[in-house]
Specification:
Blueprint (H helix, E strand, L loop, with lengths): L8 H12 L9 H12 L5 E5 L6 E7 L7 E6 L18 E3 L2 E3 L3 H13 L1 H5 L7 E6 L7 H12 L6 E4 L8 E4 L2 E9 L3 E2 L9 H22 L12 E9 L5 E2 L2 E9 L6 H23 L4 E10 L9 H10 L5 E3 L5 H6 L4 E3 L14 E3 H20 L1
Parallel strand pairs: 3-6, 3-7, 7-16, 8-15
Antiparallel strand pairs: 1-2, 2-6, 4-5, 5-17, 9-13, 9-14, 10-12, 11-13
Helix pairs in contact: 1-3, 3-10, 6-7, 8-10
The chain binds zinc ion (ZN).
Length: about 400
């Protein structure tokens, strides 16, 4: 049976190709990056690959149009979240169309956006652009924006940098000018083992960890009560959350080790470092003296697993003004999930977030993007590329 014609065959077929690459963050993304690089090469566009230290992952940066001036960067991540233990109706790595929706891992977060960008390439390559379009596709966003950080470092060193950026994370094509930051922290409590009949001879790592988690929870309650607040975020305050904990081996052994993971999702104008500093002083003033009086080698290790800066709203941001005009919106939205946008803003590139699909459909079984979102994204990109050329 011949395939049914769809409203957007180019982006659709590109999305099928992209979804077919299993780029779950634990895997290499190189096959997908090479696919994009070869695709761009067909239109005479060279790609720069920025590899990670293992050589198994890479960011791709490519410029269409003049190279002596900066332009508009269209940015997205190529990795996706895992599908294990999720109940999918169809193969997550094959696009399945049902009732105006394209199902598959990454269709929404965020290969749909990348497909629409790539579908625009043939026309862009044939246009005499005054200002360039930069394409930036990264690795390991889902595990801590490591590819975005590497790309931001690369951009910072360039003589000619992009002047503005759209990160196409799923916002339902709403224009977003701010998102929370995310500080991910690993904590390891090292206690001292012993027979549980003699608790005074050991340091119970599980109980110390519980005290630290309780302290984090008290700080969370305080933020919720006292703020600071920004009503355009949901929830409108900085959040602290412990997501995982492991420790101990048996009821009658004083546990030697306990590990847990927590995160701080901060409003743009709140420094998560200050929250972490408060936790560190609680540990060193209150917990360590008691622990080390029993076992001098006991202690608490705190490691930052990743640090994703917030995107701070900026009313002077001209790409924001343009995007609001193009979409006929009065006020930009704010999102509580972190993206790579704050990293690019951090190296001086005014950035907004706007992309097809809704975050509620991301990271879930039967993830999908609606075809009308793809069509809206295509119109938006066409218009913002035109605006970039006039700027
Ligand atoms: Zn994403």
């Amino acid at each position: 049976m011949p395939p049914k014609p769809s409203r957007d065959p180019d982006a659709r077929s590109l999305l099928e190709e992209l979804v077919g690459f299993d780029t779950v963050s634990s895997n290499s993304n190189l096959a997908l990056i090479e696919f994009i690089s070869a695709y761009l090469f067909r239109f005479g566009i060279q790609s720069t690959l920025i590899r990670d230290e293992t050589g198994t992952k890479a960011d791709l940066l490519a410029t269409i149009g003049p190279s002596d001036t900066g332009g508009l960067m269209l940015a997205g991540h190529t990795d996706v979240v895992p599908v294990e233990n999720q109940d999918w109706a169809t193969d997550p790595f094959r696009v399945d169309e049902r009732k105006g929706r394209l199902y598959g891992r990454g269709t929404c977060d965020m290969k749909g956006f990348i497909a629409v960008v790539l579908a625009a390439v043939p026309e862009l390559a044939n246009t005499r652009l005054r200002r360039p379009i930069h394409l930036a596709f990264t690795y390991d966003e889902e595990t801590g924006c490591f590819g975005g950080r590497a790309l931001a470092r690369h951009l910072e060193r360039l003589k000619i940098r992009p002047l503005r950026c759209v990160v196409g994370e799923p916002t339902g094509m709403a224009v977003v000018d701010g998102h929370k930051g995310k500080l991910s922290v690993d904590c390891h409590v090292r206690g001292a083992e012993g027979h549980s009949a003699f608790i005074d001879k050991g340091v119970n790592a599980v109980e110390i960890a519980a005290e630290i988690v309780a302290h984090l929870r008290a700080m969370q309650k305080n933020l919720r009560r006292e703020g600071p607040f920004d009503s355009r975020f949901d929830p409108p305050f900085t959040t602290i959350h412990t997501g995982q904990m492991q420790g101990g081996i048996a009821r009658n052994i004083i546990p030697k080790d306990c590990r847990f993971e927590f995160e701080i999702r901060n409003l743009p104008h709140q420094d998560p470092g200050e929250i972490l500093a408060e936790l560190r002083s609680y540990i060193s003033d209150t917990l360590l003296p008691e622990m080390q009086a029993v076992a001098p080698k006991s202690g608490v290790e705190i490691d930052i697993q990743s640090d994703i800066p917030a995107l701070a709203p900026d009313e002077e941001n001209e790409i924001l003004t343009v995007a609001l005009q193009l979409t006929g919106t009065n006020a930009p939205g704010r999102i509580s999930f972190a993206t790579e946008a704050g990293l690019y803003q951090g190296v001086g590139i005014p950035t907004i977030v706007c992309g097809p699909g809704h975050i509620a459909q991301a990271h879930k079984p039967d993830e999908f993007v609606a075809l009308d979102q793809i069509a809206l994204c295509r119109t938006f990109l066409h218009d913002i590329i035109a605006a970039n050329d006039r700027a």
